[in-house]
Design goal:
The chain is α/β, with parallel strands linked by helices. The chain has one domain: P-loop containing nucleotide triphosphate hydrolases (Rossmann fold). 49% of the residues lie in helices and 15% in strands. It has eight helices and eight strands, in the order E-H-E-H-H-H-E-H-E-H-E-E-E-H-E-H. The strands form two sheets. The chain has a five-stranded parallel sheet with strand order 2-3-1-4-8, sandwiched between helices. The chain has a three-stranded antiparallel sheet with strand order 6-5-7. A hairpin with a 5-residue loop joins strand 5 and strand 6. The longest helix has 25 residues. The two termini are 13 Å apart.
Amino acid sequence: MDVLLFGPPGAGKGTQADAVRAALGIIHVSTGDIFRKHLREGTELGLMARSYMDKGALVPDEVVVGIVASRLTEPDAAGGALFDGFPRTVRQAELLSEWLAGHNRRIDIALNLTIIDEVVVNRLSGRRTCTQCGATYHVENNPPAEDNTCLRCGSAVIQRKDDSEQIVSDRLATYHRDTAPVLVWLREHTQVVDVDADRPIEAVQADLLRALQNPA
């Protein structure tokens, strides 16, 4: 089963991804992790991506989808994948759909986490991230240890630069301009289930898992 976890930054996609992936027994596709692997290993796709990044240019959609597709060809991806925060443009959605169709697969369902911008700004500006394992916390709702260390691995927990209030607002503007149109495309091509993300984690998770149990 191939599933999209969709929504703006701060909607809780990363928080919910593990539960969705585990429920379906599929891999979790993180574009950031895949990109870093290709860049680190100096693959042809990685070098191509770096040639754009070094110039400060956006990596073309074809290259982005090519890098994601390279992960989908690995044996553990045969049973499906959870796409978290990808695709980010309509063109990426089209290219992903074409690749999946060529391998007798399709986007089976898109889980859309809905939330207003004001809540996102509060969530992300209060977010803290472990420098070692990447675990995320929130200063109000899910704080780290009292000495600002990770409850999972004990490493330092910090506020990332891109979690400052101004940068969060800029990221939301980019999302509304470039990524929100993907949702329109998805509604025309697959089942989309909207889930209110401005609730306790457990309530959101229950609705996501319920949607997966009763796909159209």
